[in-house]
Amino acid sequence: MITATVSPRRKWRPRAASRAILLALSATLSSGCGPQGRPSPTPPAEQPPTTIAASPSEPARLTALASADPASTVEPGSSRAVTGPEQRPSLRFLAVGDIMLSRRVAQAMRQRGDLLLPFGPLATRLTAVDFTFGNLESPFSSSDRFSIGPAHNFNTPPAHIQGLVEHRVSVLSLANNHALDQGVAGLRFTLGHLDDHDIHHVGAGMDNAAAWLPAVMERHGIRVGFLGASYAAVNDGGQSRNPYVARIDQRKQLEATITALRPKVDYLVVAMHAGREYLEQIDDAQRGFARQAIDLGADVVFGSHPHVAQAVEIYRGKPIFYSLGNFIFDHEPLATRQGLMVDTTLRAAEATDGSSSGAVVERMELSVVIIENRSTPRPATVAEASAVLERIGVNRPVILPQETGS
Hints:
Blueprint: H1 16-30, E1 72-74, E2 81-83, E3 86-88, E4 90-99, H2 103-112, H3 123-127, E5 131-136, H4 162-166, E6 169-173, H5 183-196, E7 200-202, H6 208-211, E8 215-219, E9 222-230, H7 251-261, E10 267-273, H8 284-296, E11 300-304, E12 312-315, E13 318-321, E14 326-328, E15 338-350, E16 356-372, E17 376-379, H9 382-391, E18 398-399, H10 401-404
Parallel strand pairs: 4-5, 4-14, 5-6, 6-7, 9-10, 10-11, 11-13
Antiparallel strand pairs: 1-2, 2-3, 4-15, 8-9, 12-13, 15-16, 16-17, 16-18
């Protein structure tokens, strides 16, 4: 039995600005997603993607500039970017793939008596940023029991939240086919457990309006909005429907949420849980949802569910990471043990009058992680990272503002 100290439960209280944003959005979404009560965005001008895959099986290729702007640098481990002669506020966050804290991952933690085990090799990276975003693949419940067999019904013991809290994994998408593995009661417990530990969540709720309610993370005066949607609400291939999970085929809800949120944040992240498990090919549902999110105003799309890393595309000057693969998981095949992390630095933009005016992308950088012992990710070696990036068509893992139009 593991004995561990977990941070005292605290009910999340958003800052005044974030609370006002969420209250306004809640009112907008609860009024319905029909023509009445929803602003109609101006349709974007037709514009082809900067780089796209020639076919679903051929990955898109990102080619970064030869060198960064010498007047703009990011110091390792710093959450502030230095730009020219002055230092403007900046925000730095990581995006990772599927996080599963049940089954053999939970077994490894129990055997070692270490609730922080899966985070150990990457602890420095995780605590160097302002926060990390990922997809929580295993709901919590009040029970400490979990299966270690091939079962696809996950349960996370409540104490396993400690690793998320201590490593600044501060916003999670719950929009996935495992959100209801512990039933509606488990979803309710998960929502409350995350709230009690100041972890924001998107993509699932006790009704559909709550499932589409975004999260807003504010650091250093920069506001980042998050929302998430899944191809399925339960693990049945998307056949059944319920009101608890936002789905990628709910295009009117996507439009209403982005339209309401876009003016209130400096950077907008959309998470999608879609695609074919264990395959590198991008399917039409992924591509259609991701591009519509960009068309409506998202700045980036992060994908999960395939459990393998997939291609990256620059569409209308914005990046789509079709699948980040696994981050903490217990799969055994090599491709499922190779995941991606995206390190994004945003800096406050300067208006013509010298005041701050929103935020722009300073840089985005891809890193590769390798999962060992069916539980614990570590940084990839240079050779390992090169092989993974080559497989998904990335020539150089740095994306600069000049490439995305930011």
